[in-house]
Amino acid sequence: MKQLNLFDTNDSSLKSKQPSLIMDREALIKWKQRIFKYQNEVRNSQQPKQQTLFDLPKTSWHTVEDIKPFELPIHNCLFWRMPEPKHEFEDESNKGYLYFIIDNTLPILLYVGETKRTAFQRWKGVHDCKDYIRNYIELHRIHKLDVAVVSAFWEHIPPDKKVLLEWEQELILKYRSVFNKECYKFWARPFGKEWK
What we know:
alpha+beta
């Protein structure tokens, strides 16, 4: 047992000698096609609406079913560096977004997020998704594949933060957005910080 102590498993020089594995070209193409197929089926399926005897009041003037990420106007993927858009909110205290990161080449939904702050405030500094986007684009460049990462925003947020969080979770699980941690079990996590 003492021989095992001869090797310091925390030694960074040992770790750096391990081979780095990245997704090969064919694996990346197949991975994206699986995601596209699933999300396209979700987009094209019409969920039956429940019939009730009485109309129930809405929690806000929109519902999560109104949110169609692929139909929203698109922006640069570096949206947090762009000037903040001028919005005409009904209630000035109710600012924020649901935001979506999309690879527009197929298209596939990569990430769903929410914020009650401006995009710049939310993404200023460290945000794991920025690393995922950079790694995702870099792998496409390595394999000489087209990539068009864009962002889109849903600005009609409910006044209640709880409803906004519920919408975010529902959309993440509905579309199984790749970069959200809730969906790693479906697509793995090939673009995290340790991807190469």
